[in-house]
From TrEMBL:
InterPro entries hit by this protein: LiaF_TM
Species per Swiss-Prot/TrEMBL record: Paenibacillus antarcticus
Keywords of this entry: Membrane, Transmembrane, Transmembrane helix
Protein name per its UniProtKB record: LiaF transmembrane domain-containing protein
Top-level taxon in the UniProt lineage: Bacteria
Residues of the LiaF transmembrane domain: 10-97
A Pfam family reported for this protein in Swiss-Prot or TrEMBL: LiaF-TM
Length: 99
């Protein structure tokens, strides 16, 4: 095999492809792209709104936000539960101080 200068990208691509075929890298890349794609949609929607394409920009922005919420639902649910718990405790403490 003749390794010349500039073949580094080819070697990296071959290694990534082999790892994906073995099933090691596929879930990692799939999870990462599942988060990156909604973020790209949000950025494109914001760019569209800023450039004057208000309707299509808002549509793409909302689709991106909803997709990101769906991907991050595993953390949004527990965070919402903690926030509700803290709010309830603060309401109880506020009532005790009024006596």
């Amino acid at each position: 095999m003749n390794l010349k200068r500039g073949n580094g990208l080819a070697v990296v691509l071959i290694v990534i492809g082999a790892l994906m075929l073995m099933g090691i890298l596929g879930p990692l890349i799939g999870g990462l792209l599942g988060l990156v794609f909604p973020i790209i949609l949000i950025a494109l929607g914001y760019y569209g709104v800023r450039r004057g394409k208000v309707f299509i920009g808002w549509v793409i922005l909302v689709i991106g936000i909803l997709a990101l919420f769906a991907k991050l639902s595993w953390i949004i649910g527990p965070l919402l539960g903690v926030a509700i718990l803290i709010f309830g405790v603060s309401l109880l403490r506020k009532k005790r101080n009024t006596y």
